[in-house]
Amino acid sequence: MSEAQEQVNRGSHDVGGLDLGAIDRTEHPLTTFERRVDALMMLMIGPNGVYRADALRRAVEAYNEADYIHLAYYEKWVRAIRILLVERGVLTDAQIDEKIAELRAAADGSTA
Q1: Contact at 8 Å (CB) between 72 and 110?
Q2: What structural domains and CATH numbers belong to the chain?
Q3: Fewest Cβ atoms nearer than 10 Å: which of 3, 57, 82, 106?
């Protein structure tokens, strides 16, 4: 298989063998955002959860190459959670967008 054919067949998540630079392996304390996303994920895949961990992986692996490479680990998760909540009919994109606008307005001290 030629290198061009291999690139066509490679998913954005399949980065094995690519030179993407050094991996930062230093430990860091989780941010509030990261802890919240992790907690939300545990609720979504728990015993009464909405989906399984393999659904999350499928959603993340479907990202385009730019998103897959440039989004941070927990940013990938939170986007996947949104995708899966909409796919499963738990929420709509409009409901999520409305709540985000409401929270932003509250944080800014204004009304939405």
Answers
A1: no
A2: 3-108 (1.10.472.20)
A3: 3
